[in-house]
Each structure stands twice: as structure tokens, then as C-alpha cells.
Design a protein that fits this description.
The structure is a single chain. The longest helix has 24 residues, at 243-266. This protein has helices at 2-18, 22-25, 31-37, 58-69, 81-100, 122-128, 155-158, 188-209, 243-266, 288-302, and strands at 49-53, 73-78, 112-116, 137-142, 220-227, 271-278, 308-311. By secondary structure, the chain is α/β, with parallel strands linked by helices. The radius of gyration is 22 Å and the shape is globular. The chain is built from 10 helices and 7 strands. The protein has a 7-stranded parallel β-sheet, sandwiched between helices. The protein has one domain: 3-Layer(aba) Sandwich (Rossmann fold), CATH 3.40.50. Helix 8 (188-209) runs parallel beside helix 9 (243-266). InterPro entries: NAD(P)-bd_dom_sf (IPR036291).
Length: 312
């Protein structure tokens, strides 16, 4: 009974904290920047940026719109320019209409940087991020959940005789078994695409921007958002073709949590983290606006209070 009581009390305490938790993260202005630059500098110079890796999917777009409304500037990163441009056009149209209305105060129109990255080697990162890497980032979102299912058909087409990997699937004799490739849990194409997007991209971008977090802002955060599909299965019921993808999701979860712990231990700096699980498809249905608002509001309510948050 005492265990149940303590557990209930802990949940109640967390809930009470969540009621006042959002405000500190959703303030886009830096008091440190004001003290440094003085009042002669424009307000935009002290406004925080939100970096969203995977901004092109539904979750990334949802956070971009929500945080632009809160007064943040945006750094949008993905592998294709089209969805990033769509977000920019939608936001400019929205804020432009408000600015032209005599009944509304002139809003802060967010500054938006769009960055397309397909490779994550040092030279590419240095070149592509040169114009944004020194911007004051307060919130870092990872919404990248790329998925390329293992194809169990046409193994011979994917592994032609002149392109058989020297190291790969092997039988007991050490020879590559071409026919066996179709039965494996993941293939080379899946590893190259999903691993590059979900693991390499996320880790490299955090490594680039981690120093910017907390330079001029308090209450900085690293937020990882996973596509939690109802029919994916879990534990021993992993859906076929999803094993490697789910492994990359687990990496993202663990990496996010450990980054926060390491910074607190080694540098004494405070960075709040959370892993958010939400079904991306449900953000697109007829009730999407309500779900999108719930996703954003609960993220900041429980940021730093829970390690993992599930949004139904």
C-alpha cells in the first residue's frame, strides 16, 4: 500500500509541476542577451532559435508552426527543400495577414533558415551549416524518423554479381549467400538510408549545436520525437521489416537522455530532455489541429519532468 501511495503522490507532484513548466521553455527572449547588447539592439537579436531536424514531416511542421506563434525564430533542416519551403510560405502568409489587419497588433515575424543536408561528413556539415551554426539555439528538436523497409523481394537485383559485399551475410563456410539475403532482418540499403538519417544525422547535428545551447539562454532543451505507430508492435512482436528502424528509434531515445545526463555531470550545465511518442498519422486526420495542439502543449508541460511521454 505504501508503494502505491508513494507512486500516486509522485504522479500528483509531477502533474502539479507540469502546470507551470511550459512558461520557462516558451519564452523566446534572452535576459542575458538584453544585458549584453542593451536596448539599442533590435529585439530580434535577442530572440531564440528553434532547430528542427526532420522539419519536413508532420511532427516537425507542427512544432514549427506552434513555436513561430510563440515568437521563436526557426532553423528547419531536412533532406528535401520542398517541405521546408512549404512551411516558410505558410508561416509568411499567416503572419502577413495578421500584420495587414488593423485589429491585430503587429506580430513578431519569425526569421526562418532552411537547410538541406543529405550527407553528414565534416566538409558537408561545415559548408551547409556555416550561416546558422552560431545562431542562439534554445530548443533542439529531433523529429527525424526515416524508414525504409527491408525488401524481401528481388534480392538478386539488389546484389548483382559485380557488387557483392566482401563483408555481409555469410554462411558457416564464410561465403556470402546471395539467396539468404531475402530472409535477413535488414539489408544494406535500409542500413545506409535509415541509419544515416536517424542515427548519423541526429548525432552529428547535436555535436555541432550542443555548444550553442545555453550560451545565452536558460531553460534549454533537447527534444526527441518518435513516430509511435499503433500497429508496429513491440518487444517480441516486432513487425516484419521494422527491426532496424526500431533499433534506430531506441538509439535516438537513449542518446537524447544520455546527452542531458552527461552535460549535467561533466559541465554542470542544465539541459532538459524528453522523448515524445506520437503517431504521426494521427496528426493528419480530421481532428489534427486538436491533436497538434495537444502534442505541443504536453511536450512542454512535461519537458524535463518525464523521460518518456506518450501522446495517444
Amino acid at each position: 500500500m505504501s508503494v502505491i501511495t508513494r507512486s500516486a503522490a509522485s504522479r500528483a507532484y509531477t502533474y502539479l509541476l507540469s502546470l507551470f513548466n511550459s512558461r520557462k521553455f516558451l519564452n523566446p527572449l534572452s535576459p542575458i542577451a538584453f544585458q549584453t547588447f542593451g536596448s539599442v539592439q533590435p529585439e530580434s537579436s535577442s530572440r531564440a532559435y528553434v532547430l528542427i531536424y526532420g522539419a519536413g514531416n508532420r511532427a516537425g511542421s507542427t512544432y514549427a508552426h506552434y513555436l513561430a506563434e510563440k515568437g521563436f525564430n526557426l532553423i528547419l533542416i531536412d533532406r528535401d527543400m520542398t517541405p521546408l519551403t512549404d512551411i516558410e510560405i505558410a508561416l509568411k502568409d499567416k503572419f502577413g495577414k495578421r500584420a495587414s489587419s488593423p485589429h491585430n497588433p503587429v506580430p513578431h515575424i519569425p526569421q526562418i533558415y532552411k537547410v538541406v543536408i543529405n550527407k553528414f561528413d565534416t566538409d558537408t556539415l561545415t559548408y551547409q551549416l556555416a550561416h546558422v551554426r552560431d545562431l542562439p539555439v534554445k530548443l533542439f528538436f529531433n523529429c527525424k524518423n526515416s524508414k525504409r523497409k527491408a525488401d524481401t523481394k528481388g534480392a538478386h537485383k539488389r546484389y548483382p554479381e559485380d557488387d557483392i559485399p566482401k563483408k555481409g551475410i555469410q554462411d558457416e563456410g564464410g561465403d556470402f549467400d546471395l539467396a539468404q539475403a531475402a530472409e535477413e532482418v535488414c539489408n544494406r540499403e535500409e542500413i545506409q538510408f535509415t541509419g544515416k538519417e536517424n542515427i548519423e544525422g541526429f548525432a552529428c547535428l547535436v555535436n555541432v549545436f550542443i555548444r550553442q545551447l545555453s550560451v545565452t539562454f536558460d531553460n534549454v532543451a533537447l527534444i526527441n520525437v518518435d513516430n509511435h505507430e499503433d500497429d508496429m508492435g513491440d518487444g517480441d512482436q516486432i513487425k516484419q521489416g521494422q527491426l532496424y528502424y526500431q533499433s534506430t528509434v531506441q538509439f535516438q531515445d537513449t542518446f537524447t537522455t544520455l546527452v542531458g545526463k552527461q552535460l549535467r555531470q561533466n559541465r554542470g550545465s542544465k539541459i532538459s530532455t524528453i522523448n515524445v511518442k506520437v503517431n504521426f498519422k494521427k496528426l493528419k486526420n480530421n481532428h489534427s489541429y486538436r491533436r497538434q495542439q495537444e502534442l505541443c502543449e504536453k511536450t512542454f508541460q512535461y519537458l524535463g519532468l518525464k523521460e518518456t511521454l506518450y501522446i495517444n
